[in-house]
Design a protein that fits this description.
3-stranded mixed β-sheet; 6% strand
């Protein structure tokens, strides 16, 4: 038999290599098992963390839902509070209107009380005079009577207009001051919505007041003529016909047709070349100021002596006794650029100062203001042409003998 080709040394080397490979395989298997165990441990830990994150997410979602529900509830409560506050505000406005009406009614009551007091004073004076006449008629030597032709214009017994002249004068002067402080500012704020030029706004208000006085004076003269014509056939009183007419007008100031005067003032302002006014709006905006000014102007004509506005013209020399300068005036300028409010005078005596604006170059501004503005050169708006008639008509409330 032939001998094997592998020697003993080779066989031993192969055995050693096999043993070494088995050892390496066992080491690799142990290392693999360890790595798998670590991975399993990490997987379990990751699963636990995932479960914890999921639970936290569920809790966050629950909290978010609760927050949403609370926010919706709060929003509904806020809307309810807003509605309640709006209702309270409306109620407060209604209460304010009620209080304003009560205040107006209180003012009316006070005015009626003053009138009643004046009536009582007038009747007391008449009673005293009648008692004095009765005593004189019973005395043995009565005073000689004066004939009606020899009697003066003023009678011995004063009328109600003469007795209340001072109180009515003080009340009307105070009312004119209120027009300057209240109604003028309201009219100015209304006009500023349509006119950006504050100078033109002040000119419009000044012209409205002056035109109101002129129109009311004319209406007073016409009304007085009708009263005298109506009273003359049946007048036999101790007072003169003039005093009787004035006394009747004082007692019946509500017969004055102020709306006709307002229409006449607006018609006069529509053709005034000094006013630049947008044609799409109307002077009816300041009809409240015009109406109250006409009433005051009509009432001051019944005073003795009557009150009037001082004559004013742009570019005149500034008079400190008659006017005060406005805040935006040039206090070193000697001439008046334009007037803000007229002065109230009694003859030559200034009762209430007016307001004027003085600046340099007032004369040049005066001639410039006389030119017709482009806004006024166009045709009047339909509301002006339909609402007001240019013809000055007499009062619709004709004075009849049944009213006297």
């Amino acid at each position: 038999m032939a001998r094997p080709s592998v020697s003993d040394d080779t066989s031993l080397q192969l055995i050693q290599e096999s043993v070494e490979k088995d050892r390496m395989i066992r080491e690799l298997s142990a290392s693999h098992d360890s790595d798998v165990q670590k991975l399993e441990n990490q997987l379990c830990s990751t699963r636990l963390q995932l479960d914890s994150v999921r639970s936290e997410l569920v809790e966050a979602q629950t909290e978010l839902d609760e927050t949403k529900n609370k926010s919706a509830t709060t929003l509904l409560a806020t809307e309810d509070e807003i509605l309640q506050l709006k209702a309270d505000l409306r109620s407060a406005h209604e209460q304010l209107e009620i209080y304003k009406r009560k205040v107006d009614a209180l003012d009316d009551y006070e005015r009626q009380i003053r009138l009643l007091r004046d009536e009582v004073s007038y009747l007391s004076n008449e009673k005293a005079m009648l008692q004095e006449r009765l005593v004189r008629s019973r005395s043995p030597s009565p005073l000689p009577r004066l004939s009606r032709s020899a009697s003066p214009v003023r009678s011995e017994s004063p009328t109600r207009a003469q007795l209340t002249n001072s109180s009515r004068r003080a009340r009307l002067v105070s009312r004119l001051s209120d027009l300057y402080a209240v109604e003028r500012l309201e009219a100015q704020s209304l006009l500023r919505r349509y006119i950006t030029d504050s100078e033109m706004v002040q000119k419009i208000i000044f012209i409205a007041v002056v035109e109101s006085f002129q129109t009311a004076k004319l209406a007073y003269r016409q009304f007085k003529l009708r009263v005298r014509k109506t009273l003359s056939p049946s007048h036999y009183g101790p007072e003169s016909l003039e005093d009787a007419a004035v006394d009747y007008i004082v007692r019946n100031l509500d017969l004055y047709d102020v709306q006709t005067s307002v229409n006449d003032v607006i018609n006069a302002m529509n053709v005034n070349p000094r006013i630049s006014f947008p044609p799409e709006v109307d002077f009816v905006l300041i009809s409240s100021l015009i109406r109250e000014t006409c009433r005051v102007a009509f009432a001051v004509q019944t005073l003795d002596p009557p009150l009037d506005l001082a004559f004013a013209s742009d570019g005149e020399l500034y008079n400190e006794n008659r006017y005060r300068r406005s805040y935006d005036s040039d206090f070193t300028a000697p001439l008046v650029l334009y007037h803000v409010w007229p002065a109230l005078v009694e003859g030559d005596v200034v009762l209430v100062k007016g307001e004027a604006v003085t600046r340099r170059g007032a004369v040049w501004s005066r001639y410039r203001s006389r030119s017709v503005s482009p806004a006024r050169s166009r045709s009047l708006s339909p509301t002006r042409s339909l609402a007001f008639n240019s013809k000055r008509s007499l009062s619709p409330q004709r004075l009849r003998a049944s009213f006297l």
